[in-house]
Specification:
The chain has helices at residues 6-18, 22-29, 47-57, 61-64, 76-81, 85-106. The model has no long low-confidence stretch (mean pLDDT 84). The chain is an all-alpha fold.
Length: 108
């Protein structure tokens, strides 16, 4: 696929994965109707819009515009789901220790 269209291709993949329509996403982000479909012709978004879309879809901006094939931005819930039960328990214990430490030190 032509590199000029990689942004739209990856945007469409993110939209499909979200289970929402492009029009729904445009409404949620406060964009004009068909503003995302306009990228079909090969345009790229402004820096602000790129950041908004990457945050919305929880993907790396570099991935959306084709600078990398690694989508390394991952949401906390997605990261947590990938952990083993032992790793989840370890994080839980560490969190409790941090919370306890904060309570003890705040009383000084």
């Amino acid at each position: 696929m032509d590199n000029n269209y990689i942004f739209y291709k990856r945007l469409q993949e993110a939209v499909d994965k979200s289970g929402k329509s492009i029009n729904c996403i445009e409404r949620e982000l406060g964009y004009a109707r068909n503003s995302l479909n306009n990228y079909k012709r090969g345009g790229e978004p402004s820096a602000k819009r790129l950041i908004e879309l990457s945050q919305y879809f929880q993907v790396a901006p570099e991935y959306l515009i084709g600078l990398t094939n690694k989508n390394y931005r991952i949401s906390s819930p997605s990261f947590f789901e990938q952990l083993s039960e032992e790793q989840k328990l370890e994080i839980f214990i560490i969190s409790q220790q941090w919370g306890y430490s904060k309570i003890v030190h705040s009383n000084w």
